[in-house]
Design goal:
Bound molecules: nicotinamide-adenine-dinucleotide
Strand content: 15-25%
Number of strands: 15
Distance between the termini: 17 Å
CATH topology of the largest domain: Rossmann fold
Order of helices and strands: HHEHEHEEHEHEHEHHEEEEEEEHHE
Low-confidence stretches: 1-18
InterPro entries: Gfo/Idh/MocA-like_OxRdtase_N, Gfo/Idh/MocA_oxidrdct_glycsds, GFO_IDH_MocA-like_dom, Glc-Fru_OxRdtase_bac, NAD(P)-bd_dom_sf, TAT_signal
Protein name: Glucose-fructose oxidoreductase
Shape: globular
Number of domains: 2
Organism: Brevundimonas intermedia
CATH superfamily of the largest domain: NAD(P)-binding Rossmann-like Domain
Pfam family, one: GFO_IDH_MocA
CATH class of the largest domain: Alpha Beta
CATH architecture of the largest domain: 3-Layer(aba) Sandwich
Keywords: Oxidoreductase, Signal
Number of helices: 11
């Protein structure tokens, strides 16, 4: 087994793209705002749209919705001109709109693939929400399409831009808590209405793992800065519950990393969780809430005492930082820290988690 020194751990941390200082990229980008088209005006679009007000390099210039009335209402609120309003049917004509540089796909998971391909065909860069697609095969096609069109593809992994998560990554990968030995990451919520798309296999691609458990998977990967080599998983789903006729409820999984670090991950549609902890051989850091939209909090074990750990001041909130990151990458020709390949890695691991749960065996990656 590899035994990394503090120096090699620090090198690993610095090499991990997630820790690149965002300010350097911002300084290189011209003082311009790229135009975003938001596709799908649902719950998460409502979280994203107000955040353009705090962006330095991004603005919203188009909206795509099935409801023209809703699109007009949002256009008025966010200052989008009439010529920037599209339906799903007229979406492809976005190619003729020079005010749109980036298409942000905020649709149900099962539609990410189609709209990313259509956006790339229209010559636009793409921000696509998590999970990247329903399957790894779709994710591969999305990467290929954007590459062939010479356009950037980024996945909406906002936690890479969130101050508490970035600080936890820094601590975990710097050697300050020694070698990470065990990560625990728990994400879940009690899901309601059985008729919603999140419980429809074609639109969601799967259950809690695709929607919320993916945060546990991401945390295990960005906290260790490593890629898992083996997974085991166990699922518990009551198929007589009308919510879980098509998708799984709870699926817990374990990951083994090359350094020997282990992760225990919870993914649940039947209970509320939002936390992680990295335990090294010299201490630990944890977060709860860990991946919320705001108010994430850190604690550490220091000298055998548990202490609150201050979250460093960040120049931007996670949403604006994420939007500006892609704009800056487009303007400077740099690859996003969470490009399509990052989404694809998760899709492949998710496939292995489902396989492990189904066949009751460890799956090598
Ligand atoms: P939502 O149900 O609130 O909104 C979905 C939107 O898609 C609606 O405007 C709906 O009208 C539209 N739509 C178009 N065709 C549809 C169809 N056939 N069925 C259902 N809706 C259709 O969902 P949401 O919570 O906004 O999630 C959208 C995406 O954003 C998902 O991929 C989700 O995983 C992701 N998301 C990410 C975060 C995050 O923190 N990064 C948070 C929430 C959601």
């Amino acid at each position: 087994m590899m035994t990394p020194t503090r120096r090699s751990l620090m090198k690993l941390g610095a090499a991990a793209a997630g820790l690149a200082p965002a300010s350097a990229l911002a300084a290189q980008a011209p003082d311009r705002r790229l135009g975003y088209a938001i596709v799908g005006l649902g719950g998460y679009a409502d979280v994203i749209l107000p955040r353009f007000a705090e962006c330095r390099h991004s603005r919203v210039t188009a909206l795509v919705s099935g409801s023209p009335e809703k699109a007009r209402r949002y256009a008025e609120r966010y200052g989008v001109p009439e010529r920037g309003l599209y339906t799903y049917e007229t979406f492809d004509s976005i190619r003729d709109n020079p005010d749109v540089d980036i298409v942000y796909v905020v649709l149900p998971n099962g539609m990410h693939h189609e709209y990313t391909l259509r956006a790339a065909a229209a010559g636009k860069h793409v921000m696509c929400e998590k999970p990247m697609a329903n399957t790894a095969a779709e994710a591969e096609e999305m990467i290929a399409a954007c590459r062939a069109a010479g356009r950037k593809l980024m996945i909406g992994y906002r936690c890479h831009f969130e101050a508490a998560n970035r600080e936890a990554m820094r601590i975990a990968r710097s050697g300050e808590i020694g070698r990470p030995r065990v990560v625990t990451a728990e994400h879940g919520f009690t899901i309601g209405d059985p008729a919603q798309w999140r419980l429809n296999r074609a639109l969601a691609g799967g259950g809690s793992l695709m929607d919320i458990g993916i945060y546990s998977l991401q945390a295990a990967r960005y906290l260790t800065g490593e890629e898992p080599v083996e997974v085991t998983a166990v699922e518990a789903t009551d198929r007589s519950d009308p919510r879980f006729r098509e998708v799984e409820d709870r699926i817990n999984f374990q990951l083994r990393f090359p350094s020997g670090a282990l992760a225990n991950c919870v993914s649940s549609y039947g209970s509320n969780h939002n936390r992680f902890r990295v335990v090294g051989d010299k201490g630990w850091v944890d977060a709860e809430p860990a991946t919320a939209y705001s108010g994430n909090r850190l604690r550490r074990l220091k000298d055998w005492r548990t202490e609150d750990h201050p979250v460093p001041e960040a120049p931007q909130n996670q949403f604006s930082a994420q939007l500006d990151h892609l704009s800056q990458c487009v303007m400077t020709g740099v690859e996003p820290i969470v490009a399509g390949e990052e989404g694809l890695r998760d899709m492949r691991i998710i496939k292995a988690i489902y396989l492990s749960a189904r066949e009751h065996r460890a799956v090598s990656l």
